[in-house]
């Protein structure tokens, strides 16, 4: 009897939150905006400070790769003087600080959620570094980029080689003197390689399978064409790859200096050394797979394919535009280079730009697949009351970006409100029968 009374007392003293939101980035604040509109009580937990990723994981010359007009956070669209431009790092931070102020969320910064578990009696237990809570529903808005990926073979590199992950890169001057090897050619890798190249550093780039696209084509930004074509409204279940598109690497392009293509072949003509995918490390010698030619050709094929789809749209709709064109490679490797000696090439720094892994170990709920990725349909999981927001291709291309997180947040807020209403109806029915 005493144990039961103690358990009831302890349960009664634990604060209860109807909705707990984990993560104080743009996704967490977007769902907070929608919940506030619906007068749904909630609390946002952020282990660092709101929007901290934008100041701590971005290099100095970072800028958006999508036009400013696509910044459409809920209730806070871009209102600056350059809608077709690309905000730089400081401008992005200012925009997000304005969004935070406008939302004014019930936010607890510096509070890390250590464990969320399903309670047998319903709802969830939430353990944090600042105490315990119970919650009726959980929104996971912490993104999917948690653990920087560095291959174990990096442990075999000479100790004098300076190694960092892309999230640690700030500028060329912060690196030791000497040449730099960038491993990975996705958005971060390609843009960091360009940043170093423009700063006059000798750059070696291990090129992966990332696709590329044009910045401008036939008189307009390619993003604007694709928006008009409805690409950014295409739900994942209608994409030709279905959920497989979530595993795709983003196209490399840049908004730097007003926006332009990133053309690795032109970089090669200007002195950048390109290789295929990194294969192994033996002392100071790195070996690469013979994939460079194929990687460049495949990226160009996608580039021309996107432009061809724009050509078709223009023709079908009778739109007046400058004439079409096809990208012709200005350079091609005579053969795929297969090795690099760090000593002979003077490489003193390696930057790993091969992405992040998700880390949802704190969430004890049956909502994951064998790879540790959440299974959901538009952010709604099989576990009642558990939702995800802000993941790439959660619903559409823009789900993990400023352009469409508002739409996803509104959809989930409706589901949350419906569940709250259902729970209230069930309680009322139970009380009437007692």
Written account of the structure:
The protein has ten helices and 22 strands. α2 packs parallel to α4 and α2 crosses α10. Strands 1, 2, 5, 6, 7, 8, 21 and 22 form an eight-stranded mixed sheet that branches. It has two domains: 213 residues, FAD/NAD(P)-binding domain; 195 residues, FAD/NAD(P)-binding domain, CATH 3.50.50.60. A hairpin with a 2-residue loop joins β7 and β8. The radius of gyration is 24 Å and the shape is globular. By secondary structure, it is an alpha/beta fold. The two termini are 24 Å apart. 29% of the residues lie in helices and 20% in strands. This is Putative flavoprotein involved in K+ transport. GO terms for molecular function: flavin adenine dinucleotide binding; monooxygenase activity.
Q: Which secondary structure elements does this structure contain, and how are they paired or packed?
A:
Blueprint: H1 2-13, E1 16-22, H2 26-37, E2 42-46, H3 53-56, E3 72-73, E4 76-77, H4 89-103, E5 107-109, E6 113-118, E7 124-128, E8 131-140, E9 147-148, E10 162-165, E11 179-183, H5 187-198, E12 203-206, E13 216-217, E14 220-221, H6 222-228, H7 264-269, E15 273-275, E16 278-282, E17 285-288, H8 292-316, E18 339-341, H9 342-345, E19 347-352, E20 356-357, E21 363-364, E22 386-388, H10 405-433
Parallel strand pairs: 1-2, 1-8, 2-5, 6-21, 8-22, 10-19, 11-12, 11-19, 12-15
Antiparallel strand pairs: 3-4, 6-7, 7-8, 9-20, 13-14, 16-17, 17-18
Protein name: Putative flavoprotein involved in K+ transport
GO molecular function, one term: monooxygenase activity
InterPro entries: Auxin_biosynth/cation_transpt, CHP04046_FMN-dependent, FAD/NAD-bd_sf
